[in-house]
Design brief:
124 residues, mainly beta, four-stranded antiparallel β-sheet
């Protein structure tokens, strides 16, 4: 079955950058929807960015222009480049995969699979 594993998190100062990685094993199906989510302490899960089978992307309002999602289908890897990080971006970041179109609430579908998360901590 599909499994995901995140890497690349860490602690940086505000204004710094990080690049997150999500390795996906078990096969990449088409269509599919992949994305990054985060959950800050005391807050709900938030969609950060997503990318569909055709490479189309969507970003949350607070990260567009600073974050960039991309993928390498050959290496079955998902990336999230995060620039100009802010203290408010501190959260556990998760990658998700679903062998379906990027429909509303795609991440809540029973077929969605998640990694265990990688922690990003930004100091003010």
């Amino acid at each position: 079955q599909v499994q995901l594993m995140e890497a690349g998190g860490g602690s940086v100062q505000a204004g710094g950058s990080l690049r997150l990685y999500c390795s996906i094993s078990g096969g990449i199906y088409s269509p599919n929807c992949m994305g990054w989510f985060r959950q800050a302490p005391g807050k709900g899960r938030e969609e950060v960015a997503l990318i569909d089978s055709d490479g189309h992307t969507r970003y949350g309002d607070t990260v567009e222009g600073r974050f960039a999602i991309s993928k390498d289908n050959a290496k079955t890897t998902l990336f999230l480049q995060m620039n100009d990080l802010k203290h408010e971006n501190t959260a556990m970041y998760y990658c998700a995969f679903n062998p379906a179109h990027c429909e509303p609430n795609w991440d809540e579908d029973a077929m969605a699979r998640w990694g265990k998360g990688t922690l990003v901590t930004i100091s003010s």
